[in-house]
UniProtKB/TrEMBL annotation:
Transcription listed as a keyword: no
Domain of life: Bacteria
GO MF terms, alphabetically ordered: ligase activity
Transmembrane segments: 6-23, 35-65, 71-90, 102-126, 146-168, 180-200
Keywords for this protein: Ligase, Membrane, Transmembrane, Transmembrane helix
Designated name of the protein: Lipid A core-O-antigen ligase-like protein enyme
Keyword Transmembrane helix recorded: yes
Family annotation (PANTHER family): LIPOPOLYSACCHARIDE BIOSYNTHESIS PROTEIN PA4999-RELATED, TEICHURONIC ACID BIOSYNTHESIS PROTEIN TUAE
Source species of the chain: Candidatus Woesebacteria bacterium GW2011_GWE1_41_24
Length: 220
């Protein structure tokens, strides 16, 4: 997975890049564009990130539902069934699921003691040993795999409110300018953020968010 510390982070980066490229066809050379799409698709698939697959699938479904107006009761039922099956499939990764629960429990304890302003930015790994016995689980010395819990843990309710305001401004600007890729990008980030932390902890992913956020706010 190249310079990324984990394949999930790579898949998130590639998935978000794919959304941007699909709805911004600024490359006139069809051969180059086709090669780029093919390369991105291969890397995305080989990353084997179920959370990124689900998020990308949701974005595609939402695009067809709202842009092409094919929404109906049968489509909604099919979507719910598929999401339920995918959720069931995710929970069958017993070891990974248990590890996420351990980190979520530690996060909950930290939040209960510092819910207003949080425990401090970038302090989750430092302080998690105080709340959990991780002597035999060095692998668990990592942030909680959920960006919402991570923000609430480190910067508290005030951080969640600030993040919500930023997202509101972002979405408002995207909707006003009819920026499809901007809306789908934030949906992709928020969905993958339910299962991992890399959008707020891995440099490459944070730089990509900053770039796309800037491009979106620049659009008229």
């Amino acid at each position: 997975y190249s310079t990324f510390p984990h394949p999930n982070a790579l898949a998130g980066f590639i998935g978000l890049t794919a959304i941007f490229l699909i709805f911004n066809r600024f490359i006139s050379n069809k051969v180059l564009m086709t090669f780029g799409y093919l390369l991105i698709s291969v890397v995305f698939i080989l990353a084997f990130s179920m959370s990124a697959y689900i998020a990308f699938f949701i974005c595609i479904i939402l695009y067809f539902v709202f842009k092409l107006k094919i929404f109906n009761q049968k489509a909604l039922t099919l979507f719910i069934v598929l999401m339920s099956l995918l959720s069931f499939y995710l929970t069958n990764f017993s070891k990974s699921f248990r590890e996420r629960l351990v980190l979520a429990n530690i996060s909950g304890e930290m939040i209960s003691e510092n819910w207003v302003v949080g425990a401090g930015l970038n302090t989750f790994i430092i302080k998690e040993t105080v709340y959990g016995n991780l002597e035999n689980s060095v692998w668990l010395l990592q942030p909680v795999h959920n960006i919402y819990l991570l923000v609430l843990t480190e910067v508290g309710l005030s951080g969640i409110i600030l993040l919500s305001l930023v997202l509101y401004r972002f979405l408002k600007n995207c909707i006003k300018s009819k920026n499809i890729w901007g809306v789908l990008s934030i949906i992709f980030i928020l969905t993958t953020g339910l299962f991992d932390h890399y959008w707020f902890t891995i440099q490459q992913n944070m730089l990509l968010i900053s770039l796309l956020l800037g491009l979106s706010l620049r659009e008229k």
